Amino acid sequence: MFLYFTSVLLVCRLVNGAWYTQSDSHTGTDFLDAFSYQAIPDPTHGRVNYVDATTAASEGLTFTLEDHFILRTDYWSTLDPYGPGRNSVRLQSYEQYTTSVMIFNIWHMPQGCGTWPAVWTVGDDWPNNGEIDILEGINDQGANQATLHTTPGCTMPDWRYQQGYDVLNDCDTFINSNSGCGVKFNDATSYGPTFNGNDGGWYAVERSEAGISVWFWSRYAGTVPQEVEAGYEGVDTDNWVRSRATRYSVSLFDISQGEPSAYFPNTDSCDIASKFGPHNIVINLTLCGDWAGSAYEDSGCPSTCEDFVNNNPGAFEDAYFDFEWLKIYT
Question: pTM to 2 decimals?
Answer without folding.
Answer: 0.91
